[in-house]
Amino acid sequence: MALLTVNNLTKNYDGKPAVNEINFQFQPGKCIALIGPNGAGKTTTLRMLSGLIKPSSGSVAFSGMKQNDDIRKYIGYLPQYPVFYAWMTGKEFLIYVGRLAHLSKEEANKRTEMLLERVGLTEAKNRRIGKYSGGMKQRLGIAQAMIHHPKLLMLDEPVSSLDPIGRREVLTLMEELKEDMTILFSTHILGDADEVSDELLLLHEGKIVESGSMEELRHKYQTAKIELRFQDDLVNYRAKIDNLPSVVTCSMDRNTIHVTATDILSARKEILAAASKEEWPLTSFAINRASLEDMFMKAVSN
Amino acid sequence: MQWMTLFKKELLENIRNFKWIWVPLVMILIATMDPVSSYYLPQIIDAVGGMPEGTEFQLPDFTPSDVVMMSLSQISSIGVLVIVLMSMGTIAGERKSGVSELVLVKPVSYTNYITAKWAAVLLLTLTALALGMLSSWYYVNLLFGELSFGELLQIIFFYGLWLALVVSLSIFYNTLLKIPGLVAFLTIATILVMKLITTIFSHLLEWSPNNISGYINQMLVSGNVPYELTGTAIVTTVIIILLVAGSIFTFKSKEMAS
Questions:
Q1: What residues of chain A lie within 8 A of the CB of B93, using their CB?
Q2: Do B102 and A51 touch (CB under 8 A)?
Q3: Beta bridge mates, A287
Q4: Where does the ABC transporter domain lie (chain A) (predicted)?
Q5: Among the partner residues B9, B101, B256, nearest to A96 by beta-carbon distance
Q6: In 3D, which of A210, A184, A208 has the Cα closest to residue A41?
């Protein structure tokens, strides 16, 4: 059964939809990336799921949630720019939000120590949050989101604002967490989504334009290309390649010939045969899979 | 349970940012200023050069209740300002900075959140008032004559109601707006407008909360609680309850992230 089911969820701001009748659902145990350019409605979607803003129409349902139940019990949420009480220590803050989420004193303490360990903040736990670095705050943010054993962890742009070191820390943490949690996170950096997520939701102008697992999407948007580089002038070979039976297009830039074909395997055979027969001075031969970037551009332009 | 967690956090925050030090100190300072300076007025005048030769200047003889009312009037101007300034960001500031987003995404009851904030500000306010009036009372007894402790408690009780109204107003605007400065401005503006209306329609609004210090004065002069003071106290309490209920209602209907 799906952990989360979203039905025709819509949010209007001043009559204009920021999120427009989106539908999706996902199974427990997955890591789902919500991808889209800035302003696509990612944050609005996550805020509606977390109960921070009310949908204009549509519904959100968790499996096992009763009617009129407080949705906030089931989710852990990290906003894009988490702000803490700078005067509290990391440990104090975690205990505070744990107690707010109805944990007992002992449980809040235990959970806090465990999560501090898990996100690697044990050493900094008695320091004021005001003195934390960006990466440390983000890790504390993830810890506070997990304090009450939520069914779903939602992270809004968890790595976009971090430097490379902080980014690596958080991505590694997410890799570990997805072993035993369901994670939904938004990002506009496609590489991050590629790295940690199992499933993708592509959001564009408030609508879901594409969704599916990484492999499904790869397959769907498969437009494998062959890239060729030569030691001498490319012009000599372009016409020859273009004339091969399975080649569809053949374009050229400064140092590479790009080939697309009806069937990539037969194109490879033909090119390699011609190359060995005529002794082409090849320096590189590569088959490229469609990148997430390509997929996204295609999905959006459709 | 959850309420206590929220309330304790407010107390801890106000200790760490020294509000529990400076708010009572300011109150003590402004409450003792008038009793002391009135008593030493002749010496002060001498010290700055004295009156010109031949000036006939009769210094008024202050009764203990006159002097304690002076302290009260200082608190109702500077003291109210201090309370408004120290409470202007208690909710608005958290919403502006975004920290409320992290707190309210946990299963926190809005009623708990608002009333815990209200209670924390009120506790600090009333403690500061009590300490201020206690020190004023000490100097009044020392320098001007007997004022009973029972009377002091009555003053603190009735005037505390007025300050509770100020706190409730501030909390109400805190739930309405995100800008602490605007909260302070509107709270003070509302108090002034209430005062204006009370003055204009004085015959209709006998029980207006703004009249409370006037009735406290009457109480000190006559020695018993005038029925107008009881009426005013009831009206003030009702307004406080309405304001807190209104704050909870406004906050519930608000979207926490926008």
A1: none
A2: no
A3: A226
A4: 4-230
A5: B9
A6: A208
Between positions 45 and 64 of A, the ones with CB within 8 A of B are 47, 50-54
3-class SS string, chain A: CCCEEEEEEEEEECCEEEEEEEEEEECCCCEEEEECCCCCCHHHHHHHHHCCCCCCEEEEEECCCCCCCCHHHCEEEECCCCCCCCCCEHHHHHHHHHHHCCCCHHHHHHHHHHHHHHCCCHHHCCCEHHHCCHHHHHHHHHHHHHCCCCCEEEEECCCCCCCHHHHHHHHHHHHHHCCCCEEEEEECCHHHHHHHCCEEEEEECCEEEEEEEHHHHHHHCCCCEEEEEECCCCHHHHHHHHCCCCEEEEEECCCCEEEEECCHHHHHHHHHHHHHHHCCCEEEEEEECCCHHHHHHHHHHC
pTM listed for this prediction? 0.86
By Cβ distance, the residue of B17, B102, B256 closest to A82 is: B102
CB contact under 8 Å between A102 and B16, yes or no, is no
Which strand ranges, in their side-by-side order, compose the sheet holding A207-213? A75-78, A152-156, A182-187, A31-35, A199-204, A207-213
CB contact under 8 A, B107 and A54: no
Which of A55-59, A240-244, A297-301 is the most confident on average?
Answer: A55-59
Interface confidence (ipTM) of the complex: 0.90
Q: Per the CB < 8 Å rule, is B255 touching A53?
A: yes
Q: What is the pLDDT of residues B145-199, one digit of tens each?
A: 899 999 999 999 999 999 999 999 999 999 999 999 999 999 999 999 999 999 9
B36 confidence band (pLDDT: 50, 70, 90): very high
